[in-house]
Specification:
It is a single chain. The chain contains 17 helices and 25 strands. By secondary structure, it is α+β, with helices and mostly antiparallel strands. The protein folds into three domains: about 70 residues, 434 Repressor (Amino-terminal Domain) (Orthogonal Bundle); about 200 residues, Enolpyruvate transferase domain (UDP-n-acetylglucosamine1-carboxyvinyl-transferase, Chain), CATH 3.65.10; about 210 residues, Alpha-beta prism (UDP-n-acetylglucosamine1-carboxyvinyl-transferase, Chain), CATH 3.65.10. The strands form seven sheets. The chain has a four-stranded mixed β-sheet. Strands 4-16-18-17 form a four-stranded mixed β-sheet. A four-stranded mixed β-sheet has the order 6-7-5-15, with helices on one face. Helix 5 packs parallel to helix 6 and helix 13 packs parallel to helix 15. The longest helix is centred in the middle third of the chain and has 14 residues. The radius of gyration is 24 Å and the shape is globular.
Amino acid sequence: MKISFETDLREWMEEKRWTPSGLADHLGVQRQSVHNWISGTSIPNGEEVVLKLFALGGDDLITFSDSEDRPNVPKKNAYFDVEGGHELHGELTVPGAKNATLPMLCAALLTEDECIFRNVPEISDVATLLEIFEYIGAEVSRDFAARTVSVKAKDLSPDKLLECRKAKKMRATILMLGPLLARFNEVSIPLPGGCVIGARSNASHLDAFKTLGAFVDETPEKITVRFARPKYENNSVLFSEASVTATENLALFCAGRDEAAELFFTAAETHVVATVRMLQQMGAKITGVATHSLSIYGGKHLHGGEFVIPSDGLLVGTYALAATLAGGDLLIKNVCHRELLSFYGAFQRVGGQFKLLDNSLRVTTPKKLTALPKLQTAIFPGFSTDLQSPFGVLLTQCEGESMIFETLFENRLTYLQELEKMGATIHQMNPHQARIVGPTPLRGATVQSWDLRAGAAMVLAGLAAEGKTRVSNVQYINRGYEKFPENLEALGAVVKRVEE
């Protein structure tokens, strides 16, 4: 039974508060054996010891060379229990945005200098990405209590990415292509995973790399990109769509190249702008920031520094909808109003009661909610696809018939079948369009999270429902919502995080 450690054993022990003596006693081995495992001079090899260690850390700690050796241990069943009928009152400060944190962290891979990040959210996607960085050799320190992370990517081994189990499960891994290709001229990553919200092709990324002159090979298991040319073959790229991650990926790559490139039909979301401004701060010369075209003149010697993650507008919208559905009086702090203008427009039209303050948003119980003829998602500055499912819950409580038109992802309306279990009246016309007739009383039920945002929507539905709602597959929610049940409970809701 041959194994390897999936993560750094010393850090795992510190996180789980194991001492070498305590772990040795628990496993029935000598303390020196644990020290040898920590230093890498030996690994556990006795079957009984390995199984005990696996019982403690599971797949996050141990990888089996032969998958047949892995014990058939069921994963913990985690869910949220939500009790409806409780108003939300108080204040909430939203942390940094997940969608800005991930590409900005990847930008740290462009330099050997230390990069320090402030206002970092404590969510599982960030934790996983940092573990992947460490796996390939980056030095990482984190203090989530202070919302601070530092990354020093001096000595990297990008070839180890294909061996990294966590890299295979996280879609944000694709954002490592650009910076690692700029530094090492060749990189292979496992085919990225993530939420199942529809076909998210890598074509917009890979076609852009090809246009610049890169060799690209994509198989069902991995993506390999190689840039062996001294200069770009073409220095202008027209994206086939205004893809957020493709824009970020190519901006990261071009910022690490000592020549000029132009990118057209680029995404302009707030988190894209934050990533591009970080690249400017690192030394890249970029014009067109916050527009749909970027001109980038990068360099091989970008420097580190301190960078602040912008606030998460998606959290602002989610909590605003939660306060509207549950009722109450909620003050949301650390708000960037600019990125929420389309949300505010739709929110106002249905009858949401809110007031824009300096860097804050106050939401109170609405007097009457009216249907929206059409809620249509679009690229920024249009209505965000990531707020469509939480807003869909609100539409079940609006008087009249509303239509949702999800233009970006074909599986993003799957949460509607969960709402139907709770009593909502919904007519799904096709994978992109649905009609919602309201208001309909929602009843507590057992529902599941289909993706990150749909999971949050189910929690919101539970707040508005009569009785208790159980939401499963909450690992999706944990990816992007920091301490979601705990934050809601602090405001007066009854939401319990349960693991069995």
